[in-house]
Specification:
Length: 309
Amino acid sequence: MRLITFTRSGSNHPEIGARIPKSSGDQVLPFADVTKKLGVSNFPADMRSFLRAGSGVMEQAKSWVANVGEQAALLIDAKNITYLPPITDAEKFLCVGKNYRTHLEELKRTNLIKEIPQEPTSFIKLNSCLAGHEAKVVRPKGITRLDYEPELVFVMGKRALGAKKADALDYVAGVTILNDLTCRDLQLREVASGSRFWTAKNIPGFGPLGPEIITIDEIPNVYDLWMTCSVNGQERMRVNTADQIWKISDILEHFSRFIPIEAGDMFSTGAPGGVAVGKENAEDLYLKPGDVVECAIDGISVLRTTIVE
């Protein structure tokens, strides 16, 4: 199932539903309309509440999607919605850094790191920086080194405290994509000063997320996915998640040792190798106004963003 948060054309009211891929054009099944038609009461109205409601609600929604023909009259053309980040109000959105071997080599060459971490490290992605699929992201005045970072994000489906590696995927509701846009101008200064706030990654709009949460049952193997990034139709990177140093099993066990991880919390698992800053012609590759960036789980989902001045 492809879970989305969206607004309808002419409305500012966020809703949740499912994207129904179709060769003739994607459609959206709004859960609010289904519950009204079927007389279902107290159904969650936002994604975090939906995930926290548990497996019963998830299975109910999956049954609507599996039998979508029965709800055909309720379907909306996807062209008539605006995508929002699938989760707009996560309590915790932790981004694991320095997690792909190929990316670590780039960071060492550019003096952004000096040594490989011995355990998972992370920084916090603020909700205020998130943007949805097809968003226009403003490159702030004075910033010239805006970089792309496609990342696989795990969305938690139930509470985890003291989770063990072997059970990690039992806690996962699904995955989505983050383009962890990074202002290298600021990042280099922050690294030099020892800052851990990461302003470079939390500027408003610098967190395109989505377009959807793909439920974990639709992912054949989270440890064998190709993460790609294209700019204006030209592929810039293609790296397999097998290159990750810390898997979601390591990450969840590490961070849930003392802190409860709740349903609706997210873990982004790091940038693969191939970002602009690691290339000899980096200045030519940094994102400019007018660039269209597509970050993807190859063959499964695509997150599209346009950079504007």
